[in-house]
Amino acid sequence: YLLTCADVPFKNEQVPEKDIAKGQVAGFVKAWELYGNPKAIIVFVVLHNERYAMDQRLMEFEIYKQNPNIRVVRKTFNDLIRYGKLTKNRKYLVETEEVAVVYYRAGYNPTEFTTDQIWKVRLEIEQGRCIKCPPIHYQLAGTKKIQQLLSEPRVLNRFIEDTDVIDLIQSTGQYNLDLVEEGDRAIKMAIKNPDQFVLKPQREGGGNNLYGNKMKEFLESIQDSEERCAYILMDLIKPVKS
């Protein structure tokens, strides 16, 4: 559609059809089947006043299309405080219904964890037998600080033997800002050359990154504070002009 509107010539075989929802939902359906309880439900953990309800509904409809025996319920963390429960045999229940799969469409922003009760809900789901998407270790692997640690040679060598692959992973510099000499050097380097780096917090996506003078000013304001430990400094990738 977009190529046609832009008057860009193309052949149909150059733009293969993609049905992302169908493939993702197939994973949910398979997980539900593997859980082994035909009466269990799938829970979508969503935000209050959810902005992305439409694509979530499409997934819900696709689940029904692939297996009409599966029931999907949508719950916020506050709903789960009231209605969720972890049993002694590690079944997670919403009211009286056993949960087979939990799909998180919330829980990626630290501002969502406003009470200890919400943290308790997340812990109980993680301790439960239900299949999580994502489980906590998978979500943590996507955070910047964990990625920084995984890129260190002493860690990479535990998982990868090919030195060329290790060099490739380390080709984009990542620098910790901990309250140590190494962190001090990284901050001074970024303040001196702000156009060569990007500062990233422990957040999803890139909307919270800082660049250039804004990054410089922010680093100057936190350089003597423990707050700096929550960020990671990275080389700024500059695409080649074509």
TrEMBL record:
UniProt keyword terms in alphabetical order: ATP-binding, Glutathione biosynthesis, Ligase, Magnesium, Metal-binding, Nucleotide-binding
Annotated ranges, domain Glutathione synthase substrate-binding: 40-141
Source superkingdom: Eukaryota
Pathway(s) the chain acts in: Sulfur metabolism; glutathione biosynthesis; glutathione from L-cysteine and L-glutamate: step 2/2
Requisite cofactors: Mg(2+)
Reaction equation(s) it catalyzes: gamma-L-glutamyl-L-cysteine + glycine + ATP = glutathione + ADP + phosphate + H(+); gamma-L-glutamyl-(2S)-2-aminobutanoate + glycine + ATP = ophthalmate + ADP + phosphate + H(+)
Enzyme Commission code(s) on record: 6.3.2.3
InterPro entries: Glutathione_synthase, Glutathione_synthase_C_euk, GSH-S_sub-bd_sf, GSH_synth_subst-bd
Gene3D superfamilies, A to Z: 3.30.1490.50, Glutathione synthase, substrate-binding domain superfamily, eukaryotic
Gene Ontology terms: cellular component: cytosol
Subunit-structure text: Homodimer.
Function, as annotated: Catalyzes the production of glutathione from gamma-glutamylcysteine and glycine in an ATP-dependent manner. Glutathione (gamma-glutamylcysteinylglycine, GSH) is the most abundant intracellular thiol in living aerobic cells and is required for numerous processes including the protection of cells against oxidative damage, amino acid transport, the detoxification of foreign compounds, the maintenance of protein sulfhydryl groups in a reduced state and acts as a cofactor for a number of enzymes. Participates in ophthalmate biosynthesis in hepatocytes.
Membership in a protein family: Belongs to the eukaryotic GSH synthase family.
Protein's UniProt name: Glutathione synthetase
Native source organism of the sequence: Lottia gigantea
